[in-house]
Amino acid sequence: MKKLFFLLGASSLAFGQNLLFEQKPLASDFFASIDVISSANYNEKMGIYVADDFELPTNSTINKIKFTGHIEDGFLDLQNLLSWRVSFYNDNGGKPSGIPVWVNSGMKMSFTNFATNANVVMTTDPADAKILNVEWNIPSSVVYNANTKYWVVLYSVLNNMNDTSFMTAKKHFYWAASTMNLPKLETAKIVDPNNLLGSGYTDWTNVNQVSNMVSGMAFSLYGANALSTSETDAKSKVAVYPNPTSDELTVTYEDKKLKQASVFSADGKLLQTSSKTLIDVRKLKVGQYLIKVDFQDGTSTSAKFIKK
């Protein structure tokens, strides 16, 4: 079963390779039977597209994505695989706000790289050459807001597929299945604008309509924390002390009304919340934590502290 983690990146933009979000694939001996096709032809007008949502605990930029899937014989041939595309969309009522190529409203960012580009690293599993791992650097300064739902759509673009051969050529990429175990996340979606599957999924549809054991897709996002203007304003007026602490942590601020303070573990798990400025942390294990402070005016900030 897939595990889902929200990891808290460091605040320095200089390194920018912190793991922000991860959904792991199912066991390799099982997922190939339920993975979902996510491919398009050379002009991307003929394709089947898969999307999954994510939320980040802090405002962040994304500069790398890793994903896993299984491939059919001949997929990696230069005559077959032309490029990869990944697009990020805002949420629209529990589904992506647009459809690749067809409806681009609400798109935050989109990247395309030829399969031979140095920014795309593809490796097959030593134990199974049909399992493909892709690591893709996508440098960007776009900020994704904390605790906000976004969607990622990724698919392969095939070089020699026309309208009649797209589904019969059998040289496709199938995005690896995962599970979704946080209630606030949505079931992954699939859209088939040309009705190639003959199932009528011409708008975003829950992917478990295609494969009933799938609720999420396997991918990881990397990047760096990025403070919004509102966070920067709040940051200069907030302090947490003592740091390190063994029993209590005090949050102080100026000209703000506290809404809630939330304590996260290093792997992004929400441990406790408080509406008070004095927070009891005696039950926390020794280690590093992050406290996120939300104010009633809609601004927020975060800081790290150490429990000793």
Number of strands: 25
Please, how many helices?
Answer: 2
How big a fraction of the residues is strand? over 45%
Tell me the major beta sheet.
9 strands, antiparallel
Residue-averaged pLDDT: 80
**Ends apart, CA distance between termini:** 34 Å
Cα-based radius of gyration, to the nearest Å = 21 Å
- Return the string of H and E elements: EEHEEEEEEEEEEEEEEEEHEEEEEEE
Number of domains: 2
What structural class results from the helix and strand content? mainly beta
Low-confidence stretches: 1-16, 228-234
> What portion of residues is helical?
under 10%
Tell me the overall shape: elongated
Characteristic key phrases:
seven-stranded mixed sheet, 2 helices, 2 domains, mainly beta, 308 residues, Immunoglobulin-like, elongated, disordered N terminus
Walk me through the structure:
This protein has 2 helices and 25 strands. The protein has helices at residues 28-31, 229-235, and strands spanning 4-6, 18-23, 36-37, 39-40, 47-54, 60-71, 81-90, 107-114, 120-125, 128-137, 143-144, 150-158, 173-175, 177-178, 189-191, 205-206, 216-217, 219-225, 238-241, 248-253, 258-264, 270-274, 278-280, 287-295, 300-307. The strands form 5 sheets. Strands 1, 2, 3, 6, 9, 10, 11, 13 and 18 form a 9-stranded antiparallel beta sheet that branches. Strands 4, 5, 7, 8, 12, 15 and 16 form a 7-stranded mixed beta sheet that branches. Strand 24 (287-295) and strand 25 form a beta hairpin. The chain has 308 residues and is mainly beta. 4% of the residues lie in helices and 45% in strands. The chain has 2 domains: 4-224, no CATH class; 228-307, Immunoglobulin-like, CATH 2.60.40.10.
